[in-house]
Fold:
Amino acid sequence: MLYPQLRQLIAGEWREGRGDDVRVVVNPATEEVLGRYRCASDDDVDQAVAGAEQAFAVWRARSPEQRQIDLHRVAALIRERVDRIAHLLASEGGKPLHDARREVLRSATIIEWDAAEGRRLYGRVIPAEPGMHLEAMREPAGVVAALIAWNFPVGFMARKVGGALAAGCAVVLKSTEETPGTCVAYLECFVDAGLPPGLVSLLIGDPTRIAPRLVAAPAVRVVSFTGSTAVGKAIGKLCAEHIKRSVLELGGHAPVLVCEDADIEKAVTALVGAKFLNNAGQVCVAPTRMFVARPRYTEFCEAFAQAVRGLRVGAANEDDVQMGPLIHERRRTAIESLVQDAQSRGAKLLAGGRRIGTRGFFYAPTVLADVPVEARAMNEEPFGPLALIASYETLDEGLRRANELGYGLAAYAFTESARSARLIAERIEAGMLSINHCTAAPPGAPFGGVKDSGHGREGGPEGLLEFTSMKFVSHKMY
Ligand SMILES: NC(=O)c1ccc[n+]([C@@H]2O[C@H](COP(=O)([O-])OP(=O)(O)OC[C@H]3O[C@@H](n4cnc5c(N)ncnc54)[C@H](O)[C@@H]3O)[C@@H](O)[C@H]2O)c1
Ligand SMILES: O=S(=O)(O)c1ccc(CO)cc1
Structure:
């Protein structure tokens, strides 16, 4: 399948960037160069924002019902083009083709859900004395700057672009450096569906140049960012400086509590799937720190390691592949260093712990047990195929360990006890808790974190409200 020409989408026009730098995009499974792009210039950023501002005026004047119809056309085109988009996503991002297809199809469902929810952005009438009408109105916020991570670029575009458009906003999206071809192919669906020119723009280039200019642009009213906590803090500072509202979807280091009464077989199946078969562990919500009740510790470690040893690692298009490569050589080096550090502090290697092959950034699914609290991997987000296991004596201790990091995105628990489940739900410091499963949040659920994992939500009614502003209108009629 042909790799697309990597162009910017600026004020309704697909064209080459006007920046100085040219960058390459690499297939992480083969290290082959897939394509090149010329970066966006400062002027490109300004033109994209100006185009979005003009298109916003057109889009906000459309009825919510019409916007839903328009977005349904986009979703239909995404479904029609699933093979092409998924192929690009798999080549650039390294995930198996069947996972890429699922992400693309799911993204169409997200857009449809948001499009319907856009018709329910109700305001409020506040009781007042006769002759006075008091109203809290919800309005589209304006131009949204969207910055996404590379690991689920299609899902994130659906949540940010689809959500913002459903709420009546216009969007300037900064592409990931790793998966720009996927971003181009995806946004072509919005353009080809006949949305107003300029309503969605795409900038590809140097994030340290594009992001500050985009955030500072006066027409930009909301900044929606998905990425690491370190970059999220920098974006948060820029937003504070320019008084921009922000949604920050940041890093995680999800704890798992495997209680004494857990069904170990079911827990292992769910956890191995969520940890390794989902983008090789390069997932913000990947279950990583597994705290297991002491009486079930050995049984869990053995069952988990055995399941992991049987996983099939390979390139996206290979038959039956379950786990792909890491996205960069530097990600692989980072995982290697975390594994070595943990082992040097006494952790036991139960599976993996090595590179695979000579081409591509493959690293074996890796399991460490008896991982001490001071190991770097227990504190830094691994963002890769590395699972850490440790034991706890009481549920109180397990909860303390689960909550001990700055992160607070996802958490998991496995228990057959309603009482333990309730206690964990009340005391866990996380934006999302899954009990006895690891399946992804549906479009109607509020996705997001607490503490260093960010603020604001994507998905559900809460996600759409992030793209709106409140206006209080009081009208004295006589
Ligand atoms: N909470 C969530 O929903 C969620 C989802 C996916 C990934 N993540 C997190 O994202 C991280 C991995 O993704 P990544 O490697 O793409 O993250 P990243 O923070 O390196 O990059 C994210 C985005 O920020 C941009 N960026 C990078 N450096 C920048 C800078 N100095 N100034 C401005 N923008 C900059 C990138 O171009 C990209 O668009 C992990 O920490 C993961 O947990 C969070
Ligand atoms: O946007 S989604 O595709 O639903 C999605 C996928 C993965 C993650 C975790 O990184 C969050 C959202």
About this structure: DSSP finds 14 helices and 20 strands in the chain. Residues 8-250+452-474 form a domain with the Aldehyde Dehydrogenase; Chain A, domain 1 fold (CATH 3.40.605.10).
